[in-house]
Specification:
3 domains; single chain; alpha/beta; flat
Length: 459
Amino acid sequence: MADFGAALLAWIGFFLLRKYLLQELDGARFTEAVLVGLGGAALMVATFWVLLYALFGLYSDIFRKSRLSELISLARMSVVGVVVIFFALLLDDGVSSYRLYYKTVSAYFLLHYTLTAVLHTGAVSSVQRLVRSGQIFFPALLIGSNALAMNTFKELRRTGQHLGLRLVGFVPFGDGINAELAQELPAAGPYQQLPDLVPALQIEQVIIAIEPSEHRRIQEILALLEGVPARISILPDLYQMLLGSVKVNHIFGTPLIEIKQDLLPPWQQVLKRVFDVVGAALFMLLASPVYAFTACMVKSSSPGPVFYRQERIGKNGLPFSIIKFRSMYLDAEKMGPSLSSDHDPRVTKWGRFMRKVRLDEFPQFWNVLKGDMSLVGPRPERQFFIDQITKIAPHYRHLHRVRPGLTSLGQVKYGYAETVAQMVERLKFDILYIENMSLSMDFRVLLFTLKIILEGRGK
C-alpha cells in the first residue's frame, strides 16, 4: 500500500512538474475530463509499479527486510520502471529538444524514488519494530542436542530478537543430550518425525546445529525436511565461510547457510512458464508434419497404439501421465518395470532411430502445455525406480522442487541411465542445475540438446 500510494502521488506530482518543464503550465485548464484522465493514468501507473516490484521479489519475506538493501533495490527497480514508462507514455510528448526528455525523465525518477523510498522505508521500519518488540515472531526448531546445539541456542537467544526467532524446542540428534539445553528447551520429538513435527508445531524456521563435517547426517535431515513449509538453516564451518557460502542478511544475525526456498526470482518464474507455453505451442504447430509422419511410421513398425502413456512423478511428488511415441513392442514390460539399454531387444527398429534423434519425446510438448512439465528440468522417473534411488541417495527428493523437463542438464551431460547406479550418478548434474537455475542456464541446456539431436547421439 505504501508503494502504491507513493507511485500514485509521484505520477500526479509529475503531471504538474512536466507541464512546468515543458512550459505548458500557463493557461492550462484542469477540467473534469483532464482530472478524470489524470486519476485513471495515476491508478494504472501505480498498479504497474506494484506489479514490477512483485515480479522482482520485493514483497517476498517482508518481515525480515534490511532498510539499506531495500533502498538499493528500489533504486535499481526505479531505473527499470522509469525507462519502461518513458517509452510507453512519455516518448510522444513532442518536445523541441532531447534535453527536455532528459529533464522530464530525471525529474520523474527523482520524484518517484524519493516518495517511494520515504514511504517504503517507513513501512519496513514499522514492521521491524513489531519484530523487535516480539509482536511478530517466527517459531523456530533447533536440531541437535550436544554442546554445539547449546552454544547455538545461547547465540540465537542473544541475537534472535532482531530476527524475530523464538525457539520452541529442540530435536535430539546424535549421542547424548546436553543437560543445560534440556533445561532451557523442551524436546519436540525424535528426528525421524520431523516432517510431522514442523507443521504440528507451526515451525517457520529450522536451524540444524550439527557439526558441519557430519555430511551424511545433515544429508539425512535435509531429506526428511524436503518439502516442509519452513526455512532451513545450517551452521557453517570456517572452510565454508572462506568459500563464500555463508551469507549474513542481518548485521546482528548469527552466520548461517540458508537452504534456498525460491530457486528463481518471480519474474524469471513467470518468463520461464511463458517461454514453456509459447515454445511448446509453436513447436507443435510447426512440427505437425513431423508428428504425422512419425505417427504413421510407429503404426507401421509394429502392432499397437501410436502413443505410449506412463505414470511419472512430477513437481511436489505428484504423479502425472507422460506421453511418448511408442518405441517398443507391445507388452514390453509384462515382466515388470525395467530400464532400457543400448541393445534392448524390446525396442523396434524405428524406435531405435526415434531414440537417437529424440523423436519419441515429441509428444511431451503436450505435457509442457498442460503444466506437467517444463522444457528444461530434471527428467521425471517412475515411483518404482525412485524408491530404489532414494535408498542410496535420499537427496533425490530435491528434484521434486521443480517441474520435470523434456531435457535436462543430467541428460545432456550424462545421457540416458541404464541402471539405478547410473541414475544416482546422473543425479549430481540435476542438482547442479537446480542450484544454478536461471533462464540463461535453460537456454544453454536447450542449445546442448539441439547439438546432441543433430549429431544423433541420443539412445
